[in-house]
Amino acid sequence: MALRDTKVFHPLNRGFDEFYGFLAGAHSFFEVKDQPVYQSIMRGHKLISEPEYLTDAIARETINFINRKKEQPFFAYVTFNAVHTPIEATEKYQKRFPYEKTEAQQDYNAMTSALDDAVGAVVWALQKNDILENTLVVFLNDNGGPIYTGLQNNHPLRLGKLFLFEGGVRVPMIASWPAKLAKGKTYSKTTSSLDLFPAFCAVGGIQIPDTLHLDGINLIPHLTGEKTAAPHRTLFWSNGPNKAVRMGKWKLVKSGKNPWLFDLSKDISETNNLAKEKPDLLEILNGALQKWLNEMAPPAWPSKPNRREFEIDGVIYQLNI
Asked: Alpha-carbon distance 94 to 100, whole Å?
C-alpha cells in the first residue's frame, strides 16, 4: 500500500522520532522537480530538495544520526531503496564496471557497489564512535532478485521476486553484534524477518505485552546458542494465487492448481517435484497451509491486481501483477 493514501502510516505517526526519506516505492535515485508529495524526499513532514545520489544521501543521513545519538541508545531503520528499480547510477560507480556489455547491467552493478559503500560507511561511523562492539546491526533484503529485469541471477535458487520458490523468499540476513554474537558463524536453521521485531525489542529491554501475539520470535537466544531448537517448525506464505508452506526440510508451493513438493535438504534448486511420490506428506503440508489460511483475517487493504499467467521453461505460473 502506498503511504500516499493516508497520513497514519507516516513514520512520525508510527513511533519514530525522526524521518528522512520518501513515502512510496520505485523512487528515482536522482533529484526530480515537482514531484507529488508521496514521491518527494522529506525530512520529517517537510519536503526538501536532495541533489545527492539517493544511496549516498541515505548513508549521509544515517551517519549524521549516529554522530548525534552516539551517547545514548538508539534504533535506526535504514531503508536503502537500492537496488530496486529504476536502474540508475552515477558516473562515480559506473566507472568501476567498464567492461559490462550493456548499460543496464553496468548501472545495476554500480548501484550494488554504491550500496556496499554506503553500508560500509554506516558501519565505519559506528566504529569511529566506538559503539560498534555493543551495537546490533542487521542487514537483509525483502525478496529475491526480480528475474524479469534480466539483470539479476538467483542461481542456484529457483525463479525470484513475486514467486514463492526459494529464489523469491530466501534472502541474505547478516547480523553483527561483536559483544554478543560469535564472528564468522553461519546459522542454518529456519528463520524469518518476522523474528527481528521481537529481537530488537528484547535487545532494547522492551517487554512485549502478552496480549500481542506475534508470528516472529526473539532470534537472539538462537544465535547465541542459548536455545538449540529451530526458531520455527513451520513457515507460511500467501501471494495472491500463490501459496507456500515450509515444514522442516519439506516445502509445498501451490500456484493455481499446481502443487510442488520439495525436499530442500537435498534440492535447494527445487527441481525435483515429489508431490506424486509422497501423497501423504503432501496432504499433511496442504492441511497445515489450509488451517493457517483459515485463521487469516481478510486483507486490510485489498488490491485489485491484474492476474497473469507466465510460462517459464515450459511451466505455467500464476501471478498478481
From this structure: 10
Which CATH number goes with the domain that contains 79? 3.40.720.10
pLDDT attached to residue 258: 79
Residue type, 288: A
The whole-angstrom separation of Cα 190 and Cα 249 is 9
C-alpha to C-alpha distance for 139 and 123, rounded to whole angstroms: 11
Indicate whether 86 belongs to any domain: yes
The proportion of the chain whose per-residue pLDDT surpasses 90, expressed as a percent, equals 79
| CB of 214 closer than 8 Å to CB of 197 | yes
- Summarised one tens digit per residue, pLDDT across range 49-63 is 999 999 999 999 999
Separation of alpha carbons 240 and 308, rounded Å: 11
User: What DSSP letter does each residue of 150-200 carry, written as one string?
Assistant: SS---TTS-S-TTS-SHHHH---EEEE-TTTS-TT----S---GGGHHHHH
Contacts of 243 (CB under 8 A, 6+ apart): 164, 236, 237, 253, 254, 289, 293
User: Does residue 164 form part of some domain?
Assistant: no
